[in-house]
Write a structure and sequence with these properties.
CATH architecture of the largest domain: 3-Layer(aba) Sandwich
Oligomer: single chain
Order of helices and strands: HHHEEHEHHHEHEEEEHEHEHEEH
Structural class: alpha/beta
CATH superfamily of the largest domain: Periplasmic binding protein-like II
Length: 299
């Protein structure tokens, strides 16, 4: 059983109706009905009798309600207690991110906070690892790209905000004749192209337009470095371009141009719901959020 199923069942039992439960949960009635139906399938039993649009709990539902009642009371108590916590100093703030944002964006965003003496832990991981770590409340916040799987947008365990970052072509200076500030995928045909690996969801759009590359990578930054060294074109995003410029101090003979007909690259800012909040954690969150907002705007 999953938490959203238990939560839906609990609300239906408390309110006595699908419509009231949906209203309390901020979901639609069909969504709650479907959730209850899925729960019944997984338990291989009927929990409710349904007559003329009304539902009546069966004995099985009463047994389940008694079993999960204490758990729901504990979760509600946790929410209440954490909601009343004042912003207090904590010894360490933990942030996990994908390697692309972990190289420059996150460290740059929180550098002033770190210089004030606040203890921080910065970790890297794949998208799947980051989601798992955040579900287990092991970090205060996280930033991840899309990876091979979907990042939950409505998790009960962490908040999620999505930033759509422009996609760019990175290549050695002079490789392409610049006719405008941007470029189309058609203008890249005939060049050696590098993209993210096939299973990565963010690479699907560009690979459909430019076909399979000779060289594919797990992340943007090493791909950009390879393209510059090998005379090829890397399909990256604006965050990668910013990191490359910042970390090489502009010494590379490289050009960056946004691709007009490429789907943007999504990044997800996650924040744990049940870790202690603090003023410094709030500052870190807002600093990283501001940096992602700038990158999404191509600034």
């Amino acid at each position: 059983m999953k938490y959203h199923q238990i939560e839906a069942f609990y609300q239906v039992m408390l309110t006595g109706s699908i419509s009231k439960a949906a209203n309390n949960l901020g979901r639609t009635q069909p969504a709650v009905s479907m959730t209850i139906g899925t729960l019944e399938e997984q338990l291989a039993t009927r929990l409710f009798d349904r007559h003329a649009g009304r539902i009546t709990p069966r004995a099985e539902a009463q047994v389940l309600f008694e079993q999960i009642g204490p758990v729901m009371h504990q979760l509600n108590d946790i929410r209440y207690r954490f909601g009343r916590l004042d912003s207090i100093a904590v010894p360490r703030i933990s942030i996990i991110s994908s390697s692309n944002v972990g190289m420059n964006l996150v460290p740059s965003a929180i550098s002033d906070i770190a210089s004030s003496g606040q203890e921080l832990r910065l970790m890297n991981g794949s998208a799947a690892t980051i989601v798992s770590e955040m579900e287990n409340q092991r970090h205060d916040l996280a930033v991840t790209d899309e990876g091979a799987g979907e990042v939950p947008l409505n998790s009960p365990l962490f908040e999620t905000e999505v930033f759509q970052v422009p996609v760019c072509a990175v290549y050695p200076r002079g490789l392409l004749i610049a006719t405008a500030g941007s470029i189309s995928t058609e203008e890249l045909i005939g060049h050696q192209i590098c993209t993210l690996y096939e299973e990565n969801r963010a690479a699907r759009d560009i690979r459909e337009k430019l076909h399979s590359p000779r060289v594919e990578f797990a992340s943007f930054f090493p791909m950009a470095c390879f393209a510059v060294a090998s005379g090829s074109v890397a399909i990256v995003d604006y965050i990668t371009c910013s990191a490359l410029k910042a970390l090489t101090l502009g010494t590379l003979q490289v050009e960056y141009r946004p691709i007009t007909d490429a789907a943007s690259s999504p990044y997800y800012l996650l924040r744990s719901r049940y870790r202690s909040r603090s003023k410094m954690a709030d500052r870190c969150y807002e600093a990283v959020r501001a940096a992602l907002t700038d990158q999404a705007a191509g600034q």
